[in-house]
Amino acid sequence: MTAAESMPKPPLTIQGVSELCGVNAVTLRAWERRYGLIEPERTAKGHRRYNAAQVEKIQTIVQWLNKGVPIRQVRDLIDSQDHAFWSEVIPAGKVDGSRSNVWQAAHREVLAALQGLNGRRVEQCLNRLLRDYGHDAVISHLTDPVRQQLAASAPMAVQRALFDSVLTQKWSARALSLMPGRREPGWMVVPLGNPLDALELAMVMSSPLWCLSQPVAVEALTQQVMAREGCGVLWVVDAMPTAAQRDKWLPSEPLPFPAAAWGPLASRLMPETMILNGLRGQLASQLPTLGDGMNHRQTERFA
């Protein structure tokens, strides 16, 4: 089922589309104003409303960007009568040199800025790309590769630490805007390992959530989540805790609320039915619906 098929009948607000498609409002406005990719309807007061066709088009744009296609080339591909053909010719992650130039240039720009310890220049590059591409594409095509390259070079340890610091501050600022309202349900994203990985996932999910900076005792998590209706916990696992830490941080019995885990080491710590698989951008559709009565399924997970 496509996003357009699953969306409510009434047109969505820009915030609703942002949560559904994982594209922040700033990027949606840029696609409309700068590139003419989408044309939302307007209410009498001028507020944007997105119908099913617009939502489906946004989803298609995201798919092209995630394949590495520059934003300026997306419109021609969407408008082409051979859209299905090009979808086969350009599989995910395999674009030709001209299409990947935008990311190669950004990669070089960020590395040069880091060599000079110029964190402000790094942030400026991120801001420029986020405006047009959104968090999923920027993280997948730029920050992930740069972090991997820096991690492989011991002499670049300071540069990697600086890059992680810039990213942490940048993503943390946005995470504040994702916190649920007073009566709004949301996910509590808990890192087991590098907190930056949890922040990156939060950026791509772009839905109501609290992104914690460190693990928390499972008893404290349970108490807090149970005190607020319609909430769940998502562990992001990229490090193996000690036995004592596992006993403190992870559940040993069924939880009375939705819970899931994602990351390279999640399957070693959690029951199989709690594990989410795939790339960051694929996780939102796998998460249980908050407030849908998960108690029975939680029992099955620990059976």
TrEMBL record:
The keyword NADP belongs to this UniProt entry's keyword annotation: no
* One family name in Pfam for this protein: MerR_1
Which InterPro entries does this entry report, sorted A to Z? DNA-bd_dom_put_sf (IPR009061), MerR-type_HTH_dom (IPR000551), MerR_fam (IPR047057), MlrA-like_helical (IPR053988)
What one GO molecular function would you report for this record?
DNA-binding transcription factor activity
Pinpoint the HTH merR-type domain residues. Answer: 11-80
Q: Does the keyword Cell cycle apply?
A: no
Q: Which UniProt keywords apply?
A: DNA-binding, Transcription, Transcription regulation
Q: What is this protein called?
A: Helix-turn-helix-type transcriptional regulator
